[in-house]
Design a protein that fits this description.
Layout lengths: L6 H13 L2 H7 L4 H15 L4 E3 L4 E3 L1 H28 L4 E7 L1 H18 L3 E7 L13 E5 L8 E8 L1 E5 L1 H6 L14 E4 L7 E5 L2 E5 L5 E3 L2 H9 L4 E5 H9 L4 E3 L8 E7 L7 H21 L1
Parallel strand pairs: 3-4, 3-5, 8-11, 8-12
Antiparallel strand pairs: 1-2, 5-14, 6-14, 7-12, 7-13, 9-10
Helix pairs in contact: 1-2, 1-3, 1-4, 2-3, 5-9
């Protein structure tokens, strides 16, 4: 069967059903009642089915008409969304973009993405708040939040950028003077440096299907990953770090990986933004750039 009903006819029929009147539908469409009536009658002839029951005082939708209305509404809505998406793609990002991220991840990774974004889109300005508190992006007027860890259920939209992988590291001079480390159980004989933001140090390490808990007291406990990394670089012990943070120091010889394969499970990273029907071009393009930047980091660091 060849479809012969066009979008204008669908829109006219949808308006009649929604308004419940040819007269009101015609006003909504900025045309006259007779033309709308002719359109609907022509549709019924083409489809070979009655869509509306008419009387001098009453208008009702037939069962077939109701089914057609629901399907036609979906088609028209999809077409409108497609047109809006194309229009937005053609629009150059501009204006202020307000961002938030964790203090450490913001200064070590998001800064790089911001610089790339501003070089690409000169009409955009950026305002950031790097903080480890959970920002209410709706009430505080934030466009995008970069969040690490599982997301709470909310009415916000989110796009996963990737996952942070981790490893255990130590400075070469520490490893030279410390006991050999060949298994997780050997960690009890070593100085450990832990990131413990809530004052409860401890590691849960996984390696494939195997899991091990490391609960003995560390030599150093920090509420900041950069501080923990600096202690590791100073040769104070073994530290668990995100690979993006540690691998540059492995490359220059200041850190070495220990117990390869053992680390905490990867942690998801998301870009979170207000749930809207159409994304603002600058929000959409920034989120896309963050996702591509995250993927490049993973490929570069292996």
């Amino acid at each position: 069967m060849t479809t012969t009903v066009d979008f204008a006819e669908m829109q006219a029929f949808i308006a009649v059903v929604v308004e419940g009147s040819f007269t009101t539908a015609a006003e909504r469409l900025n045309t006259d009642k007779a033309r709308v009536s002719r359109i609907v009658r022509r549709m019924e002839e083409k489809l070979g089915a009655r869509l509306l029951n008419r009387s001098t005082r009453h208008l009702s939708v037939t069962e077939v008409g109701r089914d057609y209305f629901e399907r036609a509404s979906s088609i028209v809505k999809a077409a409108e969304m497609a047109e809006a998406a194309v229009a937005q793609r053609a629009e150059e990002p501009k204006g202020r973009l307000k961002l938030t991220a964790g203090a450490e991840f913001g200064t070590m990774r998001v800064d790089v993405w911001i610089a790339a974004f501003l070089h690409k889109w000169p009409k955009v300005t950026i305002e950031t708040e790097y903080t480890n508190r959970l920002v209410d992006i709706i009430h505080e007027g934030v466009d995008v939040a970069i969040r690490i860890g599982p997301l709470e259920d909310s009415e916000l939209s989110a796009r996963k950028l990737g996952e942070l992988s981790y490893g255990l590291y130590a400075a070469p001079d520490y490893l030279q003077r410390a006991a050999a480390i060949r298994a997780v159980d050997d960690l009890k004989h070593h100085d450990l440096i832990m990131h413990a933001p809530r004052g409860r140090p401890g590691w849960t390490l996984v390696n494939g299907e195997k899991t091990a808990k490391v609960l003995h007291a560390p030599r150093c406990a920090f509420d900041n990953t950069v501080a923990a990394m600096n202690a590791g670089l100073s040769g104070l012990g073994i530290v668990q770090l995100p690979t993006y943070m540690a691998e540059p120091h492995v490359a220059d010889g200041r850190l070495s990986r220990v117990l390869a394969g053992w680390a905490r499970i990867p942690v998801p990273v998301h870009a979170v933004f207000a749930s809207t029907r159409y994304m603002d071009p600058k929000v959409r393009d920034f989120v896309d750039l963050c996702r591509d930047g995250f993927r490049s980091d993973v490929e570069r660091l292996g």
